[in-house]
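Appendix B: complex inputs.
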Amino acid sequence: MTNSFAVALAVARKDLRAEWRTRELVPALAQFVILALVIANFGFQIDARNAPSIAPGILWLALVFAGLVAFGRAFAAEREQASLEALLMTPASPVAIFAGKALAATLLLVGCEAVLLPALTLFFGTPLSVQVVAAVLVATIGMASLGCLFAAMVARVRARELLLPLLTLPLWIPFIVAGGQAVQVAMGASGSYDQAMALLVDFDILFVVLTSLAARFVLDE
Amino acid sequence: MSIIVANGLTQWFGPEVALEFVDLAIDSGEHVAVLGENGAGKTTLLRILATAARPTSGRLQIMGLDALKERRRLRQRIGYVAHNPGLYPALSAAENLEFFCTLQGVSRTCAAETLDAVGLGSVANRPAGLLSRGMQQRLAIGRAILHNPKLLVLDEPDASLGSDAADLLATVMAERTVVFATHDHALANRLCQRTLILRHGRSVGTATRLHVVR
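Resulting structure:
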């Protein structure tokens, strides 16, 4: 039997190596989030007073749409290359394969966040603190597990570009609510940062466990 | 001893029947060619035998195991070459095989040996996307034999291969049970002891080498 941990790492390494060589996704995502911030900068009248309440909303909007693209590509590339079947024809656990794909997509989105967060500070003057980075990273884990599960589910469907946001966005709402609150507090608004983070961690645990259980059926059937 | 025993394999795709009540028994070490026109059900049958698809109805035993329930265990013993090579174009030929070595749970050194076996040792570091179609097919065949499977299921493996296709296939098929689909009757006659002929999803008979030549 294959080692599930080694399989997950091999799948993630393979995806990251392919992205490094083709540079298809990360430059496009980085460009997208910068453009989103430019548009928001012109669309909203943001000053030092209202920035902590508006900037988190812009951050999560940019992140949600960048995430949809990143997670959608995770399985779309396998489908285009017709390599998903070869992957699943091995004795490797479908859960390990899913974990590897989700890990790679998460790291690609983190790369995009590394551009988004400093750019947010640059455009809107909001503080870039450890608390903001931690809230975004913790939310990314749960969002990635859900996004990759639905991306795997719709990979073989014709209307996948339409279905992926329809399935994913409603289930991302808890992360946007709790993550939005954590970032708002970290940027100076009133409220409990710890409570919002605890909620994010709870959602992470819940959705990582649920998607791991569902991944086997989604990928294998 | 039969390594594959199939009874009444049937596959529906919506209102269309792709395979209808196919019975099959293949002995250990036997090489069986599946012949038929386009749309006859060859790929559907091979995908079911490789455990890549579940039949709508019917029973299938491979190596004494229920192929519908023990798919992961069987996949350790089956090598499958699909119609499309399904390679990672950004990875080199060697990296493609090394990746599958990890997934198959075999040593990564198998990758270099397999590349030599399929005649790709000299292009091991070339990205798979830059290989010719024939070389990609060789790489897909290499991937199917990485884990030294007892059963090989090959869907038109001769497509795009050069003039030495028969020699390469004879080498990889040696000492294994093989089911392979092809349109090339001469190749089927040379490499296989028996043929199964499909028409409109139904088995219309089996033939020995002499029958196929005739």
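Chain B has a mean pLDDT of 89.
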